[in-house]
Each structure stands twice: as C-alpha cells, then as structure tokens.
Amino acid sequence: MNIAVLGSGNGGCAVAFDCAAHGHQVNLFDFEQFPESIKAVQNNGGIHCEGVLEGFQQVVSAGHEIEKALDGADIIYAVGPAYSTKPFAEVCKPYLKQGQIVIVCPSSCGGSIEFKNSAGLDLRDEDIVVAETSTLPYAVRLLEPGKIKIFNKLKDGLFLAAVPAQNTNHVLEQVRDVYPMMSAAKNILQTSLQNGNPVIHPTITLMNVALIERTKGDFDFYHDGVTPAVGRLIEAVDKERIAIGKKLGVDVIPDPELGVMQGYMLEATYDSGFITAPGFEGVKAQSSLDYRYFNEDVGYGLVFLHKLGEQVGVATPVMSAVITLVSLLMKRDYLGEGKRTMETLGVSKHTAKELEKLLA
C-alpha cells in the first residue's frame, strides 16, 4: 500500500517508520519551513528508531513537494499538532483524488472537520474519506533530525472515527496491519473527547511553571511533575470532560484508566498512576512555557472543550480557570483567540442530538 505521511516531527516520523516496517511504500512530506528532518531523512534514505521499536526503515521519498507525496497514495496521514491540520488540508486540496483516505492523527478537537472544511469538502462527502484518531499511537520523541525514540506504542485505548461515521470500519480495515489495537469510536466527538492531552498537559505544566522556567525542563515531566495535588487538578478537569461526553451520548474513559489500557500506566489513579508509569519513564519536560502543552492543548484543546460544554449545557469552571491562568502567564487571550471551536468548524448551532445525527 502507498502511504503519504504529512509532518516530519516526532509523530510523523514514528508513523512513517512503523508503516514502512510493515512493508508499505512511504512518502514523507513537510513544509519548507521545516527542512532539518526532511533533509536528514533524505540523506539517510529513511528513519532511525530506538526504544520499543528499533532499527532503520527506508522511505521512498522525503521532501517538500506535496503533489509527489500524494501521487498514488492510498492513505494520507496528517500527523502534527492541531494548528497543522488546516495548512495540511489547504496544500492537499488540489491533489486529493477519489478513493483516498485521510487520517488526521491525532485530532484532539474536531480535526477531521477542520480538514474537510479547509480542503473544500462537504461534511458528508464520501468520495475522499476523512477520519481522525483520538491520540497519537506512540509516546515518541525526536532525538535528532531523522532519528526518533519510541517509548510506547499503544496496546489498546486508541480510537478512530470517520466523518461520517458510517465509513469508520472501512478505514479500520485498511490500517489494521499497522494498528491492530485501534478501535471504532461512535463518532468524531468521541475521538475528540477521548484525547487526554488537554486534560494532562496543561495541568501538569501549570503546576510546574517555576520548575520549568528555572531548570529549562530538566526533570521528568510525569514522574517528577505529578504530585497528589497535581493529580487532583487533573481529575477535576477530567470530570468536566467526562460530563460533556455524557451529554453527547459518548462514554469517555477516565484518563488514568485509559493510560492503563494503552500501556503507559500500571494503576488507574490520577497521581501515583502517572508517577510510576513505565510508559512515561524518561519523558522530559519542555524547555519553555511557550510550547504546545499550552499553545495547542489550551489554545485549541481546552478552549474547544469549554465551548463545546457551553453549547450542550455543561458547565466547565475548572477548565475555564485553567484557560484564564494560562492566558495570564502567556500574555495571551486563548479563549478570545478561539483557534478551534464548534463555531469555527461551522457546527455550533446544533443540539447534542442533532450533532449525533449529523456525524453518524
């Protein structure tokens, strides 16, 4: 199968490596403003990996020409933070062909709808099937351009949904060899809600701002950054996320339970579960507060969840407090910016029941 991977960061390189390891022909693309990883993969002829997956895998090509990357592609993985989805869709728009599958990996906040809107596709369009995953299938870090370390490949608790959801099983059949642990979600609201990043990343970062600024991230983000008090804040945010899901007819798995399913954690608790998690061992904190744990997971993720809660009548005072505090620290108005909301996606006028029907 021909695979196009958009994004040469840690996640994109992990997807490209894993797909190539399963015998697929992989083309890696990224924009010209991200040349280092692409150049390294070009020079090496592929990607080096260590950790739970090891070795070297060749890729067919790595470059900045989107037409070349998409030519003949059966599956297109758009792998990157939430703010990469729109530019990926816009650059793909002229070259998408009927029958191709696009997977936004991960979504975190309606990424499949964002892709469809930006690619000029109708929400119910099925000529090009667009799906999204609930999270990245790996805990992975980029050691250097063209070289990654995978700490964990998820064992379970990885969900996928297409929009419309009637195409979900078709997509799952195409990716089963690489991702046998991937399960069908009810719809893309479940994949968006089941992403734990907006729950854990902003809260742990917020409670460790002084340590991050003082040490430039020289500590283990989860093992050192979580204490019982930090765990209580994670739990409070998680409860609001679960409540939104309940109103939308979606059963959201609490984050520590999901962590055990995925193979990160040994116990389903909000404090010691993170502190002792083997899947998080050695994962360092970010070197600066100006990082995706605030800019993406608050600016996109928590803002999206907060506004979704408002739309369906679920109060989210803790999420709101985190958004407010982080905005103060970063001298930004994340809520006012509204980078990704149900309104920007064009689905803010629907009730919970109407959303369920629209996305089925």
Number of domains: 2
Beta-strand share of residues: 15-25%
Tell how many strands the DSSP assignment holds: 12
Globular, elongated, flat, extended or rod-shaped: what is the shape?
A: globular
User: Separation of termini?
Assistant: 28 Å
CATH architecture of the largest domain: 3-Layer(aba) Sandwich
Describe this structure in words.
- The chain is globular.
- The protein folds into two domains: 2-193, NAD(P)-binding Rossmann-like Domain (Rossmann fold); 197-359, N-(1-d-carboxylethyl)-l-norvaline Dehydrogenase, domain 2 (Orthogonal Bundle).
- It is of the alpha/beta class.
- The two termini are 28 Å apart.
- The protein has an eight-stranded mixed β-sheet with strand order 5-2-1-6-7-8-11-12, sandwiched between helices. A four-stranded mixed β-sheet has the order 4-3-10-9.
- It has helices at residues 10-21, 35-44, 66-70, 85-92, 111-118, 168-175, 188-193, 197-206, 209-215, 228-247, 255-262, 272-275, 292-295, 297-312, 317-330, 334-337, 352-359, and strands at residues 2-6, 25-29, 46-51, 55-58, 61-63, 75-79, 101-105, 129-133, 138-144, 147-153, 158-162, 182-184.
Give a topology summary:
Blueprint: E1 2-6, H1 10-21, E2 25-29, H2 35-44, E3 46-51, E4 55-58, E5 61-63, H3 66-70, E6 75-79, H4 85-92, E7 101-105, H5 111-118, E8 129-133, E9 138-144, E10 147-153, E11 158-162, H6 168-175, E12 182-184, H7 188-193, H8 197-206, H9 209-215, H10 228-247, H11 255-262, H12 272-275, H13 292-295, H14 297-312, H15 317-330, H16 334-337, H17 352-359
Parallel strand pairs: 1-2, 1-6, 2-5, 3-10, 6-7, 7-8, 11-12
Antiparallel strand pairs: 3-4, 8-11, 9-10
Helix pairs in contact: 4-5, 8-10, 8-14, 14-15
